[in-house]
Amino acid sequence: MGILSGLKRCGAAVFGGVKKVKDAVAGTAKKVGKAIASGYKSFSGQKKFEEARDKLEALVARADKLQKSFDKKSKKLHELTCQHIEAINSFRKRLQGQDFNRFMRLTSVFSHWTVDDINFKEASRRSTVKMGKIRDREELFEIDFDRNPILANAKAIFTLGFWTRKKADNTLKNVQQQAAVLEEEAAKLDAELARIRAICKSLKEVVDYFTGLHGCYGRLLDELEYSVHYVRSAYLLRDSHFFDGKFDVYYLPKRHLLCLMAAEKLTRIMFAMGSRKYLDSSLTLHETDVTAAKADFAAMKELQSALAA
To answer: For residues 5 and 13, what is the distance between their CA atoms, to the nearest angstrom?
Structure first.
C-alpha cells in the first residue's frame, strides 16, 4: 500500500509539473501570437484603421445623443413659448372684447372715445435646427480592413505596408476632421437652445407686464365706473330731467378727474401693448417691442404713484 501510494503521489506531481509547463508554453504562445498580430497591424496600418473606426462609431453615437437631447429640450421650450403666446393672445381678446368696450361705454357720458380693433393673434413654431450629418464611412475610409480584409492585407504585403499605412493615416485624419465638425455642430445646437431660452424668458416678461397692466387697468375702470355713477347721481339731484346729456369733466372732483385721465392714458398703453407683435413666424423675437412693453409697464408704475399721491 505504501509503495502504491508513493507511486500515485509521484505520478500526480509529474502530471502537475507537465500541466504547468504546458500552460506556461500556451500562455507564452498566446503572448507571442498577440505580439506578432500587434506588430502586423502596425506594419499594415490596420491599427490606425481600427482607431479611426472606433472614433467614427463614437462620433456617430455622440451626434445622435446630442440631437435627441436638443430635440427634447427644444420641445419643452416650445411648449412654454406657446403658453406665453397664448396668454398674450388671451389678453388681446379680453381687451378687445371687454375692457375697451367698457371704457368707451363709461367715457361716452363725457365725450366720444373710440378704440381701434386688435384683430390678430400670434403663434409660435418649433425650432427646426438639425445637427449637420457626420460624413459616411465610405467617404472617410480610404482603406477598410473590415469589409475588404483579403484585398487590404494583400496590398499591405505587396507594398511592404507603405501604401496601406498611408491610407490608414489618411482615414484617421479624415475622422479626426469630422470630430472638429461635430464640435462646431454641437456649439450650433447650444447657441440655438440659448436663443430659444432667451425668447421664452422675454415672452414670460411680456406676460408679466400684461398681467400687471391689465390688473391696474381693471381697477381704474372700476373706479371710473364709480365716478360716473357718482356724477350721474349728482346731476340727477340737481336736474331730475337729465338722462342722456354729457357731463362736463371740469366739474368732476379732482380724484375722479385724475381717474378719468389715468384710464384714458392706460387705454392707450394697453392698445399699444396689444398691437405689438412680439414674435414673428421665423421664431425671431421683436426685441424693440419687448423693450417698449417694459417701458409701458414702468409708465403704469408712475401712473399708480401719481394716483396714490
So the answer is: 12
Angstrom distance (rounded) from CA 90 to CA 281? 19
Per the structure block, which three cell numbers stand in for 24? 506556461
Distance from chain centroid for Cα 130: 13
- The SS3 call for residue 279 is strand
Joined together, the cell numbers standing for residue 229 give 355713477
Q: How far is residue 134's CA from residue 59's CA, in Å, rounded to a whole number?
A: 8
pLDDT tens digits, residue range 112-128? 888 998 888 898 888 88
CB within 8 A of 56, min separation 6: which ones? Answer: 134, 137, 140, 175, 178
Alpha helices (H) in 95-148, listed in sequence order? 100-107, 137-140
CA 296 → CA 210, 263, 273, distances in Å?
Answer: 10, 14, 8
* Dihedral angle of Cα 62, 65, 66, 71, to the nearest 10 degrees: 160
pLDDT digit string (tens) for 44-100? 878 988 998 999 999 999 999 999 999 999 999 999 999 999 999 999 999 999 999
Contact present, 268 and 288 (Cβ < 8 Å): no
Is 146:53 a contact under the CB 8 Å cutoff? Answer: yes
Q: How far apart are CA 155 and CA 167, in angstroms?
A: 11
Does residue 255 or residue 291 have the better pLDDT? 291
Sequence letter at residue 242:
F
